[in-house]
Design goal:
alpha/beta; Rossmann fold; 2 domains; 8-stranded mixed beta sheet; 10 helices; 8 strands; binds S-adenosylmethionine
């Protein structure tokens, strides 16, 4: 397993631990930027990474000047106009920074979060109990059968998640199913991955346009992502804010 290369794991204290325990110990004893870099950009990698990191994720990200949740909340509510009610779905909600940002800009409606990290969901439940109305454990690569009602969300957001997603055709159809008519859909993606169409994200989004299911509002210019990350390579990454509107 890739994580086993991390230096502290070679110490004697890790010898009798299971894989998950080893990873948790690595998180506690290593720097988060190192762990983030070591985790594969896959859903399985994300589940393990964020399950182990949930308790200290917020403080690391805030110290890295992670502004994406606030930027997405601002974009969402510029599009909403003065209507700050409605239903908002936060896909890959993690520890709830997106939901918190939405509340800070005055969103007063119903918030639903989905994530594959049960530890992150538990963290939100325990530490931010008034932020989301519903939290679901779920995999964005699969139909979200736990969201039973179609056409209900006035905004769907996904922040910092797409590097781990593997089936964008499935995800975009599900977003379309649960989004209300004229709903705003906002996601961030690594600029390099969007531009080079990694795992066919951009082409799957364009296919939705061709099918007349949603219209492109804008693809933003690359912006900084976590510029104060102590790891030079992660600090240099840029993201695009991509906005669609359901037809
Ligand atoms: C970098 S964190 C971002 C969390 C939050 N949106 C934020 O901005 O702080 C990425 C989140 O995506 C979740 N995630 C990654 N792949 C996923 C998948 N296939 N299904 C559901 N959640 C996923 C991870 O568990 C993690 O909580």
């Amino acid at each position: 397993m890739q994580y086993l290369d991390i230096q502290p794991l070679q110490s004697r204290s890790f010898r009798n631990l299971t894989g998950a325990q080893v990873f948790t110990q690595a998180i506690m004893s290593s720097k988060p930027e190192g762990i983030m870099k070591a985790a594969p950009d896959t859903t399985a990698g994300a589940e393990e990474l964020f399950d182990s990191w949930a308790d200290s994720y917020d403080s690391a990200l805030l110290s890295w000047k992670y502004l994406a949740p606030k930027r997405v909340a601002d974009i969402a509510f510029a599009e909403f106009g003065t209507n700050k009610g409605g239903n908002l779905l936060d896909l890959g909600c993690g520890t709830g920074l997106g939901g918190q940002a939405a509340r800070v800009v005055g969103f007063a409606g119903k918030l639903v979060g989905v994530d594959i990290s049960q530890a992150s969901i538990n963290y939100v439940r325990n530490r931010k109990p008034d932020t989301y109305h519903e939290l679901h454990y779920g995999n964005l690569n699969m139909p979200m059968t736990f969201l039973m009602r179609d056409n209900v969300f006035h905004a769907v957001i996904s922040i910092g998640v797409f590097r781990y997603v593997e089936k964008f055709d499935v995800l975009f159809k599900e977003i379309h199913r649960v989004a209300a008519k004229r709903a705003i859909i906002i996601f961030t993606h690594l600029a390099a991955s969007w531009d080079s169409d990694v795992r066919q994200c951009r082409s799957a989004a364009q296919e939705m346009e061709k099918m007349g299911l949603w219209s492109l509002v804008r693809v933003g210019e690359p912006e900084e992502y976590m510029p104060n990350n102590p790891d030079e390579e992660l600090a240099q990454e840029t993201i695009r804010y991509v906005v669609y509107r359901k037809r």
